[in-house]
Each structure stands twice: as C-alpha cells, then as structure tokens.
Design goal:
By secondary structure, this protein is α/β, with parallel strands linked by helices. It contains seven helices and seven strands, in the order E-H-E-E-H-E-H-H-E-H-E-H-H-E. It has a seven-stranded parallel sheet, with helices on both faces. Bound molecules: NADP nicotinamide-adenine-dinucleotide phosphate. The site of NADP nicotinamide-adenine-dinucleotide phosphate (NAP) has 30 residues, from helix 1 and helix 4.
C-alpha cells in the first residue's frame, strides 16, 4: 500500500509506539487522527496529525467516533487499555487480572465498530507483546491477554478479507509505559534485557517500522510480526 494521501486512525497514537507510528505515517504523506483518553500528552504534533479524545473501553463512544470519522484506509491500535497485573497466578488479585483484559476489550471494541469503515484495500494493525508466546515468571496476565489479541486478529482475518489485519508483537521497548526516570530507568532496562540476544530495550521507532511494514506489504494478513530483540529465540 502506498501510504501517501491515505487516512489513518491510530488508537494509543499519543505516546510511545503509537505516537512514533503516527509520526512515520505523516512523514509518508498520510493524514492521521491520533487518539487516546488524554491526547494532550502527545505535546506538539505536526500539521498532518489531528488529536482526538476517546476511551477504547467505552463501546458507545467508540461506535460514535468511527461513525463521525467515516472512511479510513489504515487502522492501528496500540492502546494499552488500562492497568497490567504482574505476579504469580496463584497469588493474583483477580480484579487486577481481569483489568489487564481492558486492552483486549478496547481492541475488540475498535475492531467491531472500526473495521466496517476501513476501505476494502485497507490495512489494520494491532499490538500484542512477547509474553503472549513466551511469558517470563509473573507475566501470566500479559501472556493471556497478548495471546487473545493474536488469536483475535488471526480469527477475524478471514471474515474481513480483502481488508488485511496483522499483529505486531514488541519485546521490551523504551516508552513512557515505564514511569521510571534517570538511573532507575537505565538499571530497569538493563535488568530486563540482559538475557536477550539483543541486550538493550527497543526504540519505539523500531516497532513503528514493523507496523509500517505490515501496512505497506499487501501480501500479509492474519499473522504476527515479532520486533523483540530476540526474546522468543533467547534460551
Ligand atoms: N513498551 C513495551 O515494552 C511494550 C512491550 C510489549 C507490548 N507493548 C504494547 O505496545 C502497546 C503500546 O505501548 P507503549 O509502550 O507505546 O505504551 P505508552 O507509551 O504508555 O502508550 C500507550 C497509549 O495508549 C493510550 N491508551 C491507554 N489506554 C487507553 C484507552 N483505554 N483508550 C484510549 N487510549 C488509551 C495512552 O494514552 P492515554 O493514557 O491518554 O489514554 C497512550 O497513548 C501496548 O499495547 C503495550 O501493551 C509494549
């Protein structure tokens, strides 16, 4: 797909991976609506990006949003959705575990009401994460949600063809999702990537390039692209 002059909507497009994707889409000539609950966090954005407020968990608001936007060519969802629960499953606060699925419900809401507005030639990308297929200790909730995200895309792909849908699965990426700063941040990322084949956190631009690849390449649908520093191949 030639991205120039296309209309794109990026849920979670105001921070981290989604913001970088929005910026790359604009550089390639698309007009982008970057969406989140508090879009002011994006700061100054180029002319090609319009910011919009929406909570992907609010089904009625999601439906109204897509009805108002009309036809689109590119739909990306990287919104985290809500909180994420960590820790052993047998010690899990089940409200926290269930809350982690806000990401899945947000993705499902957006697909349910967004896909019908995507043109037949259009492309959809949603974002899972390496724990989906290779959880580390304490990542049971992330794994269950990420696996469901990947299964959702794979299952929907046949139903919505020729519209394409793919998943991009990041490893550890240095984004505002981690609130630490200074030395604490550096040490955290060193610690969580030291066993990886590529022993550093990824840059959001490296994941955004994976998303752009999934959009531009018209021969892929229903699959998952890993941008993970070798997480899955690490022993
Ligand atoms: N960073 C990593 O290491 C990593 C690893 C694996 C997978 N991932 C996945 O990659 C995706 C992007 O993560 P990121 O690192 O770029 O996170 P981020 O920098 O925290 O960005 C998350 C974005 O989602 C928006 N958002 C969250 N909940 C929302 C909701 N209910 N409705 C609408 N927008 C919402 C946030 O804005 P508001 O707060 O204003 O709503 C923000 O724009 C997520 O799905 C995450 O699970 C990230």
């Amino acid at each position: 797909m030639d991205i120039a002059d296309k209309k794109a909507i990026v849920l979670g497009g105001t921070s981290g991976i989604g913001l970088k994707t929005s910026l790359m889409l604009v550089e390639k000539g698309a007009s982008v609506v970057a969406v989140s609950r508090d879009p002011s966090k994006a700061g100054d954005v180029p002319d090609g990006i319009r910011l919009a407020a929406l909570d992907t968990r609010d089904l009625d608001a999601v439906e109204a949003f897509f009805n108002a936007e009309g036809d689109i060519d590119i739909l990306v969802n990287s919104a985290t959705g809500g909180s994420r629960a960590f820790g052993p499953f047998m010690e899990m606060d089940m409200k926290g575990f269930q809350g982690s699925f806000d990401k899945l419900w947000g993705y499902a809401n957006v697909l349910r009401y967004g896909v019908s507005h995507v043109r037949e030639t259009g492309s959809i990308v949603i974002v899972s994460g390496s724990p989906a297929r290779k959880p580390k200790p304490g990542q049971i909730a992330l794994s269950a949600v990420g696996s469901a995200v990947e299964a959702l895309a794979r299952a929907i792909a046949a139903e919505i063809a020729p519209k394409r849908i793919n998943v991009v699965s990041p490893g550890i990426i240095d984004t505002p999702m981690v609130a630490l700063s200074g030395d604490d941040r550096t040490k955290h990322y060193q610690n969580v990537t030291k066993s990886h084949l590529i022993d550093r956190p990824g840059d959001p631009a490296e994941v955004a390039k994976g998303i752009i690849f999934a959009i531009e390449n018209e021969f892929i649908t229903g699959t998952t692209i890993d941008v993970d520093g070798g997480w899955l191949a690490t022993q």
